[in-house]
Amino acid sequence: MKSLKNIYQTLCNHFGSQHWWPGESPFEVIVGAILTQQTSWNNVEKAINNLKKENLLDSKKIRDIKNEKLEKLIQSSGYYRQKTKKLKNFMNFLWEKYNGRLEKLFNQPIPKLRENLLSVNGIGKETADSIILYAANKPIFVIDTYTVRLINRLEITKEKDYNKIQQLFQKNLPQDTQLFNEFHALIVKLGKDYCKKKPRCDECPLRMKCNYQKSN
DNA sequence: ACCCAGGTGGCCC
DNA sequence: GGGCCACATGGG
Length: 216
Description:
Blueprint: H1 4-15, H2 26-35, H3 41-53, H4 59-64, H5 67-73, H6 80-98, H7 102-106, H8 110-118, H9 125-135, H10 145-153, H11 162-171, H12 177-193, H13 212-215
Helix pairs in contact: 1-12, 2-3, 2-9, 5-6, 8-9
This protein binds a DNA duplex through residues 32-33, 36-44, 46, 75-83, 86, 121-127, 130, 142, 144-147, 184-185, 187-188, 191-192, 196-198.
């Protein structure tokens, strides 16, 4: 089997450090993780900047703000009515269970933390794992559509189940937060540049390891 | 004019 | 346990 470590090295040499997550605080990472669901980061940035401008990037303020106002502020991020509810759900969860303190939320074993995050309506596996890795700085591997597409095209596995793919990465790599951080970010970078539904295999840095172009 | 983006939950069988 | 659908904006 193609070594994940080897793929990581290739991407790292090609693209360099990605400096993820693009956010100044754990709280900002969480808001971004919810807003970027099925949405380009460019649209999310505008929404986050709107919140910053009004000094509303704060869990209590978002909890208490009127839905209509929040919807307006995050409109550019798409699905804005849904995402308003999702943000509210998380803030209520944070205040009801952890007294509004992220340290308290983060201060529990990864499986328990994940389970608790997943209990919030609007936080699914990828968002939960993004929060654990990029906000809490704990080692868990984030799987997104780019990751599934990549390993399917590399023919590492045909598996599509989130948890199984995550296990594959975690079992074949050292449990290193910084490595997980960079690797996932690099996969997204590769995906955006070369490995979309309509790929650009001819210039892909992984083309020598990938059978997709030939079998396509 | 399309196609797509750093998903999720609900509903159906 | 999987397949389909709604959700919505902005950039290529």
